[in-house]
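A reminder from the course coordinator: this example appears on the midterm review sheet, so study it carefully.

Given structure:
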């Protein structure tokens, strides 16, 4: 295994553990609160699923191509890898901080989702190899 890939694996597995722990929290604490509004329950569950989303993105990044050697692609790869690695932490913070915030302006949640999305795009852009011809390129 490439020495640069284990952080994705470790963070992804920790993210799955956090997802499980927050699931038990939702099951034990939220199910006992019958007076909670449906909007607050939905907010909790949505942030819970975002933790899973971030963990699975990290696990998917384990099997990717090796990082590029130099240039703009290496910079994009590093930015993307950093954002993807931080995404489970950001989604967990959103779960903990914005538990009862049903406003559409949930700053931590939006930051986590945008960071994860931009991280995936930067990681993918950094891994694109321009020397490999596309399958739809005309052959002579």
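Designed residues:
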């Amino acid at each position: 295994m490439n020495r640069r890939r284990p952080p994705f694996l470790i963070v992804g597995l920790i993210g799955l553990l956090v997802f499980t722990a927050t699931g038990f929290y939702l099951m034990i604490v939220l199910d006992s609160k019958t007076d909670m509004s449906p909007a607050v329950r939905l907010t909790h569950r949505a942030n819970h699923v975002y933790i899973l989303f971030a963990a699975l993105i990290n696990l998917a990044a384990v099997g990717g191509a090796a990082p590029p050697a130099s240039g703009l692609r290496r910079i994009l790869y590093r930015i993307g890898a950093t954002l993807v690695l931080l995404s489970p932490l950001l989604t967990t913070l959103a779960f903990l901080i914005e538990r009862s915030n049903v406003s559409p302006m949930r700053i931590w949640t939006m930051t986590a989702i945008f960071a994860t999305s931009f991280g995936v795009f930067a990681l993918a852009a950094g891994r694109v190899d321009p020397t490999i011809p596309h399958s739809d390129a005309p052959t002579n």
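The chain has a mean pLDDT of 84. The two ends are 37 Å apart (CA to CA).
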